[in-house]
Structure formats: C-alpha cells, structure tokens
Amino acid sequence: MQQFLGNIEAKLDAKGRVFVPAAYRRSLEKEGDGKLILRLDPVTKCVKLYPSSVWSKLNEEFTSHLNMWNKNDLRLYRQFTAGVEEVDLDASGRVLLQKKHLEAIDVTTDVLFVGVGNYFEVWSKANFETDLLGDEDFSEALQEKMGNIMF
Fold first, then answer.
1. CA quadruple 140, 123, 77, 28: dihedral, nearest 10
2. What is the overall mean pLDDT for the chain?
3. Which of 36, 38, 58, 74 is most deeply packed, by most CB within 10 A?
4. Do 31 and 126 contact (CB within 8 A), yes or no?
C-alpha cells in the first residue's frame, strides 16, 4: 500500500509542470500506479492527486452510499466526478498542473507537496500554513481522537 508522508517544496516550470517528489514516485512505481487522478479539493485550496488504484476504491466507497436513481444523489456524483482529470507522470517524473488548477489554489511558481497517507496534495505554502491547526488545538484534537494510544 502506498504511503505518502511529509511535505516537500518544489517549483513549477514555465509550462506548469512540476517534479513529483522522488519518494512519492518510488511509492507509485512500487505499486505499479503510473496514472494519477487529479481533483480540486472542494473544502480547502489544494489539488489532490490519487493513485488510480486509490481513486477506484474511493469512488466505489462513495457510490455505495448513493442511490443513482435519486436526483440529488446523481447531481452530487456528477459534480464530484466532473472535476476529475487523469494525469500521467512524464518520462522525467513530472506532472502537468493546468493553469485553472494553479489559479484555484493561488500558485504561481512555488508549490508544496503534502503526503496524506494513500494520496498527496499540492498546495501554495501560504494556504497550507493558514489551514493548519494551532499547536494547542492540534494537541487537543489528537488527544480527543487518539485517547490513550501511544505513538
């Protein structure tokens, strides 16, 4: 199973391409996932990149909660999938981020890759830092969710 961890800064080239971090590429290659599914996050200002195998599981899980004969469920699913794009890593390990995506996440040249377990995100550094919990709120949230689990 893929594991994308940490955060890594990178720069876009003039065409909007960026090198996917080497550790992330190794994880993708290990699992045989050459295709990525790109989706703007509907909640925060970032782009999510899912290995195709992870996306397939997410899509199955999502549709299992929907009644495709229900008008509102169908609209929700249509909107969820309409913003999805399949992207490939080029031979150099880069991915192309379209201008519309870069503008949506406030990126011009510098990006921040953030590993989130089985997928990763692309952020502007400023938006990422703004989205983080403060130290005290983070500590309280960890204690609430994790209880007595030691790590």
1. -100
2. 91
3. 36
4. no
Helix axes 71-82, 52-63, angle to 10 degrees: 170
Residue 50 confidence class, pLDDT cut points 50, 70, 90 = very high
> In the predicted model, is pLDDT for residue 32 greater than 80?
no
**SS3 state of residue 53:** helix
* Single-letter amino acid code for the residue at 30: K
- What integer is the mean pLDDT of 47-73? 94
Cα–Cα distance measured from residue 5 to residue 24, given in angstroms and rounded to the nearest whole number: 8
| Paired tokens of 88 | 């490939």
Tokens of 8: 């890594």
Average pLDDT over residues 78-93: 92
